[in-house]
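User: Hello! I'm new to structural biology and keep hearing that structure can be predicted from sequence alone. Could you demonstrate with SDR family oxidoreductase? Please show me the input and the output so I can see what each looks like.

Assistant: Of course. The first part below is the input, the amino acid sequence of SDR family oxidoreductase. The second part is the output, the predicted structure written as tokens.
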Amino acid sequence: MLSLHGKTVAITGASGGIGEATARLLARRGAAVVLAARRRERIDAIAEDIREEEGCAAACVVDVTKADDLRRLVSSTVDRYGRIDVLVNNAGIAPIGPLADLDIDNWSAMIDVNLRGMLNGVAAALPVFREQGAGHLVSIVSVAGLSVSPSMAVYAATKNAVRTVHEGLRAESTDGVVRTTAISPGYVRTDLADSMADPDIRERTRKTMDAMGIPPDAVARAVAFAVEQPGDVEIGEINVRPTAQA
């Protein structure tokens, strides 16, 4: 029997990288997946690939900075499949740089996508989880919040804020209805560096990702491990990084 048969999972930031890998893996394990991102053509193509492999997939155009979009994602998932078992908050950006650059616009963008986007997901999914009597919130955080490097202060702050929200939601959910999992990747071979504003930082990060980064599938397997647990088991936090990463 497929390990996730009957589960319905919505995934933000699913047009590539960790989000795409997670959608493909969970679908292979039997889940119905809804891919959410801004790039319609890309998520439509991935969903079609999954269906061609006899998986169950749909796509929904979503900008996570807009609360209405997250509500629409959750409601359309419920309309299509009857419920939403898991919401994976994966969308994120990293236009990092030294604080001395005073790049307020990019600070705001990271807050809007990385933190507010996750909170919009909580606001959309939590009432449905409560109504169903069960639900699982998974967020892709970062080891950048565990050891803050130069140029990453604001990015790390947004990720640590997400980690804090998760712990708060866990503390409020001791009735067993809502489970939470924060997954913190290290270097992963994705296009995250494309969102980095500083060209020198962007190039250095790309080289590091190419040299030691793990594949997105490694993080997808961590997501699968967390959501495959029985309802009375919560995997609160997982760190996934290359063995070569300091």
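User: So the tokens describe the shape?

Assistant: Right, they're a compact way of writing down the 3D structure. Reading them back into a model, for example: Strands lie at 8-12, 32-37, 56-61, 86-89, 135-140, 178-185, 237-240.
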